[in-house]
Amino acid sequence: MVLRLSTLFLRTLREDPADADVASHRLLVRAGYIRRAAPGIYSWLPLGLRVLGKVETIIREEMAAIGAQEVHFPALLPREPYEATNRWTEYGDNLFRLQDRKGADYLLAPTHEEMFTLLVKDLYSSYKDLPVSLFQIQNKYRDEARPRAGLLRGREFIMKDSYSFDIDDEGLEASYQAHRGAYLRIFERLGLDIVVVSAVSGAMGGSKSEEFLHPTPVGEDTYVRSAGGYAANVEAVTTVAPESVDYADAPAAEVVDTPDTPTIETLVADVNARFPRAEGEWTAADTLKNVVLAVTLPTGERQVVVVGVPGDRTVDLKRIEANIGAHLEMGGEVEVDAAGDEDLAKHPGLVKGYIGPGLSLSEAVLGTESATGLLYLVDPRVVEGTRWITGANVTGKHVIGLVAGRDFTWDGVIESVEVREGDPAPDGSGPLEAARGIEMGHIFQLGRKYAEALGLKVLDRNGKLATVTMGSYGVGVTRAVAALAESNHDDKGIVWPRSVAPADVHVVATGKGADVFEAAERLSADLEAAGLEVIYDDRPKVSPGVKFGDAELIGVPTILVVGRGLADGVVEVKDRATGAAENVPVDEAVDYVLRAARQ
Ligand code: ATP
Ligand code: MG
Predict the structure, then answer these.
(1) Which residues form the Aminoacyl-transfer RNA synthetases class-II family profile domain (predicted)?
(2) Which residues line ligand 1 (CB under 6 A)?
(3) What class is the 503-598 domain?
C-alpha cells in the first residue's frame, strides 16, 4: 500500500527535542520515527516500525542461514533461574526487579542465558540432539545508570540474542565462528562499518569474546588499533610486560626522609635534588604509585584494594573494573572508584601521600613489618627485579631502590592503567592508536558456566552425562537503527541506506493543479506495482517548501517531485544522498527509479 502523508500517523517537528544531544536521537524524533515515553524508553511510530522491521528481517535471514531457529521468551521472568546463576545479585542496580501480588520476585530480563539453558534442558537429553542454536528478537530491560542518546542506550531496547549448545569445545568453536560470520554479513547488509575487537566478557564469565564496534565519535567505547591489524577494546588490551630483571647485585633499599612530597612531581624533584643517581635523572616512571580504590561489590559492600602502578601512568578505573573479577571472591559487575577519606579512615595502615606496596614491605626495609592486610595488585610492568621509589607507609618517608619480589610482594597482576597511543600492540603489530566506537554486537564463548549452574547435561557418545558448552551472541537491534541514522545524516535530515529505508521512493506532489495530483497518484501506483515501497506526499494544502523539507528529514533514498515540469512532460528525480537531481520523462520515471533502487 502506498503510504499517504495525508493520512499517515506522522507529525514531523521543526524543533529539536530538548533532551537530544546526538544527531540520530534528534532526527529520529523530529522525523517521526520514535517518541520518548520515559527516560531511555521509546514508542515506535509507523515509519520507525518499518525501519525496525527491515533491520530485523536482515538479522532473521542471516540467523536462518546459519541454521539458528527462532523462539520467543517472555521478558517478565521469575527470580529462581537468575538466582541459580547468581545474576539476580550480580546484575546489581541494572536489573529491574518486581513482585507479583503474592510477593514472589520477578525481573524484566536484561538478557536470557538462563531461560534458553533451561529450555534446552527441558527438551533435549542426548549429544545426538546437538548442536543447536536458538535465537529471539525481543525486548530487554536494563536500568542503565546513564540512558543516553535516544535509542543508542535505552532502558528498554530490542536485542537479537542467540545461544548455541554443543557437546564439546570444537563444537562451540564452530558455532561461535558461524555466528561471527553471520554478524559480519548482517552489518555488511545493514551498511554499518564494523571493527571486530577482542573484549573481556565482564559479567558474562566465560572465555573468548569479541565485540562488533561501529566506529563513530558518539560511541562510548574507546578501542585501540594498530596498523598491523590488531584491534581491541581498551578494557581488553594486555600490556607487553618487560622481562624480569636479575637483582642479585641490587643494593639494599633505603628509607629516606622526604618531607612535603605528597605528589609524584614533588617526590621526583626532591629525590633528584637530594639523591641524584649516576644513570641520569629520576623520572616519574621510576616511582611506584600505590592507588587506593574502593570496589563496590554486587551486594553493595565496599572492599578497599590497593593497586601499584608506575608513577608516570594514570589509573584507568574501567580497565580495573573489567579485570578485577579474577581477584575477587565474588563474581559479577563491580564498580571501582577512588577510595574516599572514609575508606582510608578504616585502614590506618594507609598513610595518605606515602602509601607503600602495602602487603608486605619486609622488615628488612622498614625495621618493622608493615602490612595493611588489603588486597594488593600491581600493573604488569611491575615485574620481579624492577626497582622503585615508593611510599614507606610512614608520613614523610619514601623508600629508594625497593626491589619487586625481594622487598615487596603482591597478590596478583592486573591491567590497571590507561592504554596510551604509541603503546605497543600485544601481538607485535605496531604502536596503538585510539578510536571511538559503539558496540553493535557481542559474541561470547560462555563455556559451561550456565549449563553447570542450571544442570544442563546430556548423554555423550559413551552414555555418560556430560555438561553442555554454550555460546551467547547479541545484536542491538534498536541500537542499530540509531547507529544507522547517526552515520547516515546531513544537516537536513536522515539519509537512510536502501537496505533499511522506510520506503524506496518518496513522491512529492507540488502545486495546486489537479493534473499534478493525478499524475503523482498514477506514478505512485505504478511504482508500487513495479514492486517498490512508496511514500506519497498527497497533502493538498501544504507548501512545496514544507514537503521538500519533510522528504529530506524523513530520508527516503529517492525523492520524485511532480510539479511544474509536468507541463513539459517531466518529473524531477532526486538522490537524497548526493542531492543530484534529474528531469526524467513521466513515462520513463518508473524504470528510472527502479534502476536507482536496484543499484
Ligand atoms: P554496553 O557496553 O554498550 O552497555 P553491553 O556490553 O552491556 O553493552 P551486551 O550485554 O553485550 O551489552 O548486549 C548485546 C548487545 O545489545 C550490545 O552489543 C548492544 O548492541 C545492545 N545493547 C546493550 N545495552 C543496550 C542498551 N542499553 N540500549 C540499546 N542497546 C543495547
Ligand atoms: Mg557487550
Answers:
(1) 35-497
(2) 111, 142, 144, 153-154, 157, 159, 439-442, 474, 476, 478-479
(3) alpha beta
